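Researcher: Here's my situation. A collaborator sent me these components and asked whether they could plausibly form a single complex. I don't have experimental data yet, so a predicted model of the whole assembly would be a useful starting point for our discussion.
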Amino acid sequence: MHDPHDHSHDHEHSHDHGDGQDPHAPQRDHDAVEMSGYEALEETLRLLLIEKGIITHDEVARQIDLMDSRSPALGAQVVVRAWLDAEFKGRLLRDAREALKEFDVDIGSLAEFKVVENTPETHNVVVCTLCSCYPKMLLGVPPAWYKSMAYRSRTVIDPRGVLTEFGLDIPLSREVRVHDSTADLRYIVLPMRPADTDELDETALVSLITRDCMIGTAEPSRVGRGA
Amino acid sequence: MVDDMKRTHVRTDAGGRAVHDVGGLDFGPIDRSEHDLALWEKRVDAVMILLYARKNFWTVDAMRRTIEDYGQQTYDSTEYYEKWARAMRNLLIEQQVVTRAEVEAKMIEVVARHRAAGRTVLNDAIEW
């Protein structure tokens, strides 16, 4: 999955034209001399579907733009709102689907979306043991490690060990709850607001919250932002 | 990423685990390095979502079933979007959106075009 040539991808999809061929295919990745059969299969299926009029280049480009537009910054804004507005936080924890409409986030056809709150007594961490289910609508695409066999297999049986690998040591006095996501039920962690942040404004607070804070493999901190 | 010993984790023996059911096993240390998706991976994701979420060719459950019917060895040794690409091909044929002959002919054409442009296409015989 980790194509060494993806430095060229950022600008490339905008060059897709609606003419049934990818006009830049031979030139793209001009420094690439190898491609995988799976990459060729992707092109094969996409071109066939375009030829048959089932999808268009523009639809694919727009879907990629949508994917690229989602990032953990959106999740961080939701977290900060919950920190600053207790009434919103209550609604978010009770019915995330409804509360997230204020952020123009559509949970879609998923059966359920749950926000789990970290407290001094409880730390939450999210995994998908079966595949890669993830709160994409708030965090964007999951990191490679979230989809790895190592994270999927071990988080449910040795969560504290996994968290230690991420540099997060949860004291034994604090319960660790692991939430195993499915296609029908996604989770996101609402981290605790760090102490000594009273004077920070909303923008500064948002900057404390990383993607991993909302997966549960990091905690927000004023010093040394995590991954 | 996954070492050879862990790859041999048997899940489909008498224990009755499905190939994707890895919770509670131990696949070793986590590689935490960050990777941007390659364009072709984004395209697999985008086309798959267009087909099932926007155009209702199949459900997410059918997609999962197709990913999960890999043999264990192939499941463990293929990357995430490789699984998706194979699943999409098999679903498109199963749902009679395209035929196997159409896929095979177009694949030959695509591979030939890239080879003519000087690229080496590795492992273009993709397991059914």
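Model: Some features of this prediction you could bring to your collaborator: DSSP finds six helices and one strand in chain B. Chain B has one domain: 39-128.
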